[in-house]
Fold this sequence. Notes:
This protein is about 35% helix and about 20% strand. The protein is α/β, with parallel strands linked by helices. The strands form 6 sheets. The chain has a 7-stranded mixed beta sheet, with helices on both faces. It has a 3-stranded antiparallel beta sheet with strand order 13-12-16. The chain has a 3-stranded antiparallel beta sheet with strand order 17-19-18. α1 packs across α2 (about 25-40), α2 (about 25-40) packs across α6 and α7 (about 255-260) runs parallel beside α8 (about 280-290). It is globular, with a radius of gyration of 30 Å.
Amino acid sequence: MLERSARLFPFIVSSHLQHRLTSAARHASQWRISRAAAALSRGLKSMEPLKTRQDPGVTSNNPPPASTGPTADVLTLTDTSPDAETPPPVGLLPGETVVKEGKASILFPSANEVFYNPVQEFNRDLTCAVITEFARELLAQRGIKVVVPGEKERVVVSLSEETTEADAPVKEEKNRTEEPEETATAGEKCERGLRVLEGLAASGLRSVRFALEVPGLRSITANDFSAKAAGLIARNSEYNGVNHLLQASCRDASMLMYEMRGKKERYDVIDLDPYGSPAPFLDAAVQAVSEGGLLCITCTDMAVMAGNSGETCYSKYGSVSIKAKYCHEMALRIILHSLDQRAGVYQRYIQPLLSVSVDFYIRVFVRVFTGQCTVKNSASKQALAYNCVGCGSFHLQRMGKRMMNGKHMKYSAATGPPVGPECEHCGQRHQMGGPLWVEPIHDVPFVQRVLSAVSGNPSRFGTSKRIEGMLSMVTEELEDVPLYYTVDSLSSTIHCNTPPLLQFWSALLHAGHRASLSHACKNAIKTNAPPAAIWDIMRCWEKLNPVKREKLSETSPAFKILSTEPSLEACFTVREDANPQSRKRHLTRFQENPQAFWGPKARAKANGGVSTSLKEKREKHQNKRKNQITDSSQLKNRPCKRFRQGTCSHGERCCYSHDLPPTDQEKME
């Protein structure tokens, strides 16, 4: 029975086999199979009894929340029939710990068998906030009111006319009739709610948090290709009492989404948070999401998207990344370009709601719609970027052009390029990157609603302060200005002192240009000012803080830029409107390192631990900087790498050893 259960395990946990069971015997059989699968996934030789959360051996302060939603239409591990076998509660297995985040308590193996990164709590909190607001907006159209514990009633004040006492009863009666009859609460199943898919769920923490914290959900499918991860998801679902909402699935994420492309089978929300690049899953995701549905995509391959490997970025996302100061916002626009391009194949288009660059990853939330006419605008939404390697000035060239011709839209090819063979400011060459998404990357009214909900209920999330600071900066950004400059890089180009951020911003405002900060970089300035105006301001600043011209090379960008007189007189008096509200209120905009050795974690392995190559690399670089060689004579104890490769030309004068290490056969002798 146990061996047969192990073979059937991937199919048992699949969401496609979660049908209604009407017989008590089938309930008991399903419980025995899932219990055996859980034991096999942990490598147990016998069916050991599980400890419950109330046992003395399990330390837990918060008991799992009881399921309050309807459970008749889903498979659960309990049965009220007197003939049914009553299964014991799920508890800890040997080597497991309990990880608590939000309202969820997750059973997690101590070995690195299932991926988990605690630093991404901000990612999960922000996702819960965005999906809650998305559900509120979508379910309101269906007559369902979303209820969030601790959230105050939103009051909309009209300043047009004062309400008289005679009109008050009429308006009160009108509001009573328009109020939705049905309410949706977190943890309860909503029959007309949203269907959610987490394609790469790992331990299922994110999905469990959705079930416990996001109201208005009908079902959650937590999928992972690893059988051990899928078994852990099933156990975590039962441990938190959300079996009525969450179904575990052990499938290939792309195949699962391809099978759900039908209009009646699509998911309302698809969350993809892979280890590395989401590129292999994007084509299936844009097809499997419903009309107006929400895609939540995370990219952690920032080395590729930030310009270190432009050719790899092109192969994955269809866009060439370049090394520039604005690389983090460029990464956001690359993934949006890739999503829009893949959606356009199926006559669909995207509408970005929120796009953020956080820590070591980027996260985008987009809605997907269908419309052949709107898809034609896609070419004019993308642009190539020309970046000067000398001074960092950049220009954008849109891929297409559209204009209104009466009642019809006329499309044509764009004209260009916008730059010459050499930069007009410093005489250096240009790099070309892209295509990029150059339309707005945020829906500011939607972001303001999310911000209002989070700031009005700060106890809901552990990272509420950072979410409030991040979203406040997002709402202050210029929507129609792609990319940004950094004040320190501008100063470094001409070798002068760095002007204070507010003074440089004020100089742009005095010159008649618009400007804002950027959430993607601490010293960034987004402005609609052309590069010529920016360098004129920097020339004026250099006159106040002169550099030693005699030390500048005649071929350097600084010499070429400072050789030209400014065409305007910059004013560096600080203006009141140059300081944004997020800065005045001292919000947490750019938080410090959350913990020691934070960042991307090692990829999970089937047998736990870290990969062999990573382990060897760690041993090789162990204490590399602590035991540095100060005496050159000690270098003779280290082998010469070039001598091994046959390329060392120093001979006996080489400071490294040319003695080859003994072979394995010589060691045996």
